[in-house]
Amino acid sequence: MRSSTWAYMAGEALASLRRNRFMTIASITTVMLCLLVLGAVYTFTCNVAKLAEVAEAQVEIRAYLSPKVDEKALRAIQEQLKQIPGIQSFEYISKEKALERMKQQFGDKEGLLDGIDKINPLPASFEIKVAEPSMLSGVAETVKALSGIDEVDYQKELVDKLLLVTRTMRFGSVLVVVGLGVVTIFLIANTIRLTVYARRKEIAIMKLVGATDSLVRIPLVLEGVLLGVVGGIAAGLINNVVYAYVFKTVSSSMPFIPLVLPQAVNGKVLAITAGAGIVIGMVGSVVSMRRFLRI
Amino acid sequence: MRSSTWAYMAGEALASLRRNRFMTIASITTVMLCLLVLGAVYTFTCNVAKLAEVAEAQVEIRAYLSPKVDEKALRAIQEQLKQIPGIQSFEYISKEKALERMKQQFGDKEGLLDGIDKINPLPASFEIKVAEPSMLSGVAETVKALSGIDEVDYQKELVDKLLLVTRTMRFGSVLVVVGLGVVTIFLIANTIRLTVYARRKEIAIMKLVGATDSLVRIPLVLEGVLLGVVGGIAAGLINNVVYAYVFKTVSSSMPFIPLVLPQAVNGKVLAITAGAGIVIGMVGSVVSMRRFLRI
Amino acid sequence: MGPLIRFVDVTKVYENNCTALRGINLSIEKGEFVFITGASGAGKSTLLKMIYGEEFPTSGRVIVDSWDVSKIPRKKLPYLRRSIGVVFQDFKLLPDRTVFENVAFALRVTDASRLAIRRRVPAVLELCGIKDKSNCRPDELSGGEQQRVSLARALVNNPILLVADEPTGNLDPDTARGIFALLEDVNDMGTTVIVATHAQAMVDHMRKRVVTLRDGILQGDEARGIYRA
Amino acid sequence: MGPLIRFVDVTKVYENNCTALRGINLSIEKGEFVFITGASGAGKSTLLKMIYGEEFPTSGRVIVDSWDVSKIPRKKLPYLRRSIGVVFQDFKLLPDRTVFENVAFALRVTDASRLAIRRRVPAVLELCGIKDKSNCRPDELSGGEQQRVSLARALVNNPILLVADEPTGNLDPDTARGIFALLEDVNDMGTTVIVATHAQAMVDHMRKRVVTLRDGILQGDEARGIYRA
Ligand SMILES: Nc1ncnc2c1ncn2[C@@H]1O[C@H](COP(=O)(O)OP(=O)(O)OP(=O)(O)O)[C@@H](O)[C@H]1O
Ligand SMILES: Nc1ncnc2c1ncn2[C@@H]1O[C@H](COP(=O)(O)OP(=O)(O)OP(=O)(O)O)[C@@H](O)[C@H]1O
Ligand SMILES: [Mg+2]
Ligand SMILES: [Mg+2]
């Protein structure tokens, strides 16, 4: 095709968007709203994943030292712990610190535990964080085998529960995003099909006058792409602005809730919405046109 | 209008759905998918509210008894607690029980605390649940004033955080449902507008042949209502089945997660989706028709 | 009683500034048979559209029966249109209904009974020679067949006024003659008939009143006239 | 070289079991001017539609130029259609484009240059007497004007074959005469012209080949014939 034909097709796509203003507005808002929801759910999902991660990072192994362990033996154990793969970090909790913590747990009423001070039945211990919650039992075994370690405890039940929940959360949110993605594709494709359907007679006329499939299809596909890109970018930007605001509000009033940084997620959201807009707009118009081109 | 005209209009709505099969399918799927998402989010929201409620129910006041309190004084305090409005329930924790609990908190290593047994520095206490977390401070004050109560503690900071989070969750989920409701209205109305738009020429012809607005409008509105009701009920039923399944799965594998009973939410979801379908279908078609009737 | 239709100083300027009619003054009595002639684009269709309220005058007044069409309230318009049968130049058939349903629709708008519809529609289809196509949709018909469906719809509820815009443009001379004979019959039974047409031979043969437009101006109005453009 | 168009035992039965053509055998040489006549519903439009591939024969073969239209691959169809100019009975104008754009579209499909479009389109609009409506959309035109736009579009890329289905049904006799003169000119310059028409006076006056259909059967084929239906 000569370049003026390409120029014509591009111009035609734009002109058609202008002429069918009603349908243009209807489809852009549809694309935008669908992708807005998709983007929002994706952002939410990222935060769920982050929450799961933070929760898992709380999990730790407590290794109680035998009372016989002296300063030198302690250092030896520390050296050994550093060698064990899967241990991310560990902290030594002396007998005194353990008692202090216990008192704190009982709030203001420290005086009540005063009697215990002289005895201090609490053992010294290590608090060990592992890189992956799944490594817990392995690391626990290894640590238990070290000489000087009396007992190892990692609240297996609680950890198992936690892992079950976080895994379900991750799986559930992937499921939700995929499901919503499918819904979005359907909704946008449906709208584009309706706009193409509304023009089936024009398509037939063009074909009868001798237009090739491409000459009919390219402007319409361009139209679909333009609808998709405008709606998608709008959805992405709105999402970005709103999330930045939510992040600011929540992290100032509830700093203890771990949120994903806007910088970390906004780019992806924009890419997803714009990308989905383009692809669905294009594929949607190509597919919906097919049957009307058979003339 | 005579009854045969009404019959005609009803028949016409059905016939039109059949004739425009393509648009019928497109709009029913749109209605269904939109309301599916709305229903799912509503169900999720109910569970968020439940979670918040359960979390808030964990909040309790601990009132420590002075060591001087004897059997009779204890009974007097219990009587007084029963009178205080805002207290939902309370439990007496004796010194022995307190110690036992502490031992449990330290897991397997009970032996280590053996020495403490003879002393038992822990005080007896009441665990008090209030009806509303907002009543906490008031109830705490009242309880503290009782004779025989040494100290009152309710982890104010933690409770404040919790209340902030649960309140935000509740507010957030209302916002999400409302926002998504608006999106749903737009999406469905858009689709219905496109289908009405596709028939603007037919509407014009009917008007030119002498049809009143009602004769054109009623069948089209009936169509919109049918689309809405079918899509809405389908969405509601799918939601119900899926949630029943999710509930069964989660409550058997993760019984510690508090989920709303399907019986408690499914009816509402069905009512919401079917209701929204009908209303949006009806209003959507009435509104989109208006400009095409001016002929 | 005055004339059935009166145009008083009617001018029509379309939105694109195209002036279709200029200062038209015209009276048509009840029971008349009038041909409207004129070259393509002279304003014949525009004139007819003002009678049944598809277009409204930019200035001047159009009075039909007791209605002032130029300022009829939207609510009343359907009642005016029902009393007028219109054969549209472009047929205006409902594309996804059968021939029967298309014709029946003009009865349904008048809230006619089921029985009336079942009796009247086939009779009119027979009259227009398309009874065998009752169950076809318009896009399954030839051009001339569609035109006759449009005519059948215009006749079906015995209008007091029949407005036909080029009702035989797609018909062979024989069929056209039949249609004109039909229009004459309808007129004989009291219906006022206004026909915009290019069928010179028919106009010349029938010797009815001929109103001629040229460039939107009323150029001629002869009682027993012949075709002029 | 054989004839430009050949119908061999062509029968057309539409999906609703309506038989539009039965065993048609017909040859049209390059450069001929042929009228197709016949009553409304005789099958004229169906016959024409088979030439440019809007409908395909149920049995038999249709050969146009070097193409076997009855089994042309979908990909090739546009190229056949471009070499044929068609005036559709129902005009088939693109509703949301101007007259200029509608006519230009038939050039665009041939990948014509911008210059060619700017030169050729106004010339053809002039020829058909609708140059002053260049910037109007079809719904701003009278019936006859739309018909002439359809004609202009058919002529614009100098087709080797012009197929006109009732091209003067909405035109006054004077304008119609002009159009027929135009068709004769085009024919004189070498284009084969096939016209389905009910314009008895014109057919009788021009004395060209007349092919007559009746109920889908080829009823007559006279070299210098007169109108028959
Ligand atoms: N909707 C419209 N908008 C703008 N201009 C219009 C419109 N309808 C008609 N016109 C113009 O008004 C003039 C008269 O049109 P009209 O349809 O009345 O002609 P007509 O006499 O019926 O012609 P024909 O015999 O070709 O049907 C024409 O020049 C036409 O272009
Ligand atoms: N798409 C279709 N589906 C079914 N039947 C059709 C279809 N098109 C035409 N017909 C039927 O085929 C027959 C021939 O139609 P055609 O359009 O060829 O007639 P025609 O000679 O052009 O008539 P006219 O002069 O009225 O235009 C008619 O009886 C018509 O009802
Ligand atoms: Mg006209
Ligand atoms: Mg025809």
Would you mind describing this structure in some detail?
The complex is a heterotetramer, with two copies of chain A (295 residues) and two copies of chain C (229 residues). By secondary structure, chain A is α+β, with helices and mostly antiparallel strands. Chain A has two domains: 3-55 and 162-293, no CATH class; 60-153, Alpha-Beta Plaits, CATH 3.30.70. Chain A has helices at 3-19, 21-57, 71-83, 95-105, 116-119, 136-145, 156-197, 200-208, 213-253, 262-293; strands at 60-65, 87-93, 125-130, 149-153. Chain A is rod-shaped and about 100 Å long. Chain A starts with a helix and ends with a helix. Chain C has a domain at 94-158. Chain C contains seven helices and ten strands. In chain C, β9 and β10 (217-222) form a beta hairpin. The two termini of chain C are 32 Å apart. At the A-B interface, α2 and α7 of A face α2 and α6 of B. The structure holds adenosine-5'-triphosphate (2 copies) and magnesium ion (2 copies). One adenosine-5'-triphosphate sits between chains D (14, 16, 18, 20, 38, 40-46, 89) and C (133, 139-145, 170).
Furnish the topology, listing elements before pairings.
The complex is a heterotetramer, with 2 copies of chain A (295 residues) and 2 copies of chain C (229 residues).
Chain A lengths: L2 H17 L1 H37 L2 E6 L5 H13 L3 E7 L1 H11 L10 H4 L5 E6 L5 H10 L3 E5 L2 H42 L2 H9 L4 H41 L8 H32 L2
Antiparallel strand pairs in A: 1-3, 1-4, 2-3
Helix pairs in contact in A: 1-2, 1-9, 2-7, 2-9, 2-10, 7-10, 9-10
Chain C lengths: L4 E9 L5 E10 L4 E6 L5 H8 L7 E6 L2 E2 L8 H6 L1 E4 L11 H10 L5 H14 L15 H13 L5 E5 L7 H16 L3 E5 L3 H7 L2 E6 L2 E6 L7
Parallel strand pairs in C: 3-8, 3-9, 6-7, 7-8
Antiparallel strand pairs in C: 1-2, 1-4, 4-5, 9-10
Helix pairs in contact in C: 3-4, 3-5, 4-5
The complex binds adenosine-5'-triphosphate (ATP) (2 copies) and magnesium ion (2 copies).
